[in-house]
Structures are given as structure tokens and as C-alpha cells.
């Protein structure tokens, strides 16, 4: 697939590890991008973090297993986890079918908003995906 065929939400932030961040006041909802879920294939299991868990940017927070691989996801921001998507325990395929909606992973209270400056904008992420696609030929 070409980079422009992947769904990328404007107004969100992105990481090079294919996570998205939607900021709402001092909170952030976090999930995996359409490109990320597409690379993993059918997702069969998600290990969620704990509510009230304090995390640092770059800390492992989620494990995902798909038919292709098992990966760990690292928090793009520091803060306290205030909710997790319990629906993913019963239906991890929500990450495949609706990565920006019903497939959100967790919500956190941001402790350091300056960390947002280290993330990519939607335009930056589109360019990043194009680079990856070009390298893969």
C-alpha cells in the first residue's frame, strides 16, 4: 500500500513506533496507527496497563500479539493512566478494524505537555510513512 492509502488523523500526534496521541485538555487518548496495525496483521491479544499506573515517556505500557508478531508499545508521554479500553480484552481485533475509534488503547493524564514537542504532526507522520515505503521499495 502507498503511504497515502493509510488513514492518518489530522490534529493527532504520532510516534515513529506507530502510535497516535489525541490530546483533550490535559489528557491524551493513545492507540496504534492504521499503518501500525496493518504491519502487524490480525491482532489476537492485547495486554493493557493498569489504571492509576504512573508511566514515563518511553516506558513499556502495552503488549500486543498478532498472527505475525508480538510487540511491546512504549508510552509516548509521561503521566498517569486514567482509563483503559477493556473492550480490547474481549475483542483485540478492534485495533485492526477501528484503530482511531473503538480501538483506542488507553487514556492518560499528561504530566509534562512539553513532551508533545517530541512527537510528529500528522504531516510529519505521512512523510515518515512515505520514507519507510520508499526504503522498502
UniProtKB/TrEMBL annotation:
Database matches in Gene3D superfamilies: 2.40.50.100
Keyword Methyltransferase: no
Assigned keywords, A-Z: Lipoyl
Top-level taxon of origin: Bacteria
Residues the record lists as N6-lipoyllysine modifications: 68
Signal peptide segment: none
A Pfam short name: GCV_H
Cofactor mode of binding and number, as noted: Binds 1 lipoyl cofactor covalently.
Necessary cofactors: (R)-lipoate
Swiss-Prot/TrEMBL GO biological process terms: glycine decarboxylation via glycine cleavage system; protein lipoylation
Segments forming domain Lipoyl-binding: 27-109
Any one annotated GO CC term: glycine cleavage complex
Cited InterPro entries: 2-oxoA_DH_lipoyl-BS, Biotin_lipoyl, GCV_H, GCV_H/Fam206, GCV_H_sub, Single_hybrid_motif
Family from the record: Belongs to the GcvH family.
Quaternary structure and partners: The glycine cleavage system is composed of four proteins: P, T, L and H.
Functional summary from the UniProt entry: The glycine cleavage system catalyzes the degradation of glycine. The H protein shuttles the methylamine group of glycine from the P protein to the T protein.
Protein name, UniProt field: Glycine cleavage system H protein
Record organism: Persephonella marina (strain DSM 14350 / EX-H1)
Amino acid at each position: 500500500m502507498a503511504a497515502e492509502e493509510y488513514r492518518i488523523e489530522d490534529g493527532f500526534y504520532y510516534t515513529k513506533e506507530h502510535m497516535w496521541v489525541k490530546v483533550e485538555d490535559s489528557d491524551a487518548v493513545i492507540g496504534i496507527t492504521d499503518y501500525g496495525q496493518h504491519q502487524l496483521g490480525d491482532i489476537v491479544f492485547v495486554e493493557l496497563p493498569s489504571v492509576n499506573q504512573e508511566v514515563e515517556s518511553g516506558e513499556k505500557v502495552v503488549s500486543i500479539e498478532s498472527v505475525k508478531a508480538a510487540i511491546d508499545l512504549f508510552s509516548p508521554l509521561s503521566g498517569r493512566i486514567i482509563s483503559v479500553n477493556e473492550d480490547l480484552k474481549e475483542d483485540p481485533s478492534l485495533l485492526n478494524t477501528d484503530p482511531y475509534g473503538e480501538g483506542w488503547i488507553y487514556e492518560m493524564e499528561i504530566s509534562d505537555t512539553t513532551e508533545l514537542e517530541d512527537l510528529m504532526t500528522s504531516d510529519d507522520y505521512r512523510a515518515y510513512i512515505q520514507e519507510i515505503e520508499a526504503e522498502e521499495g
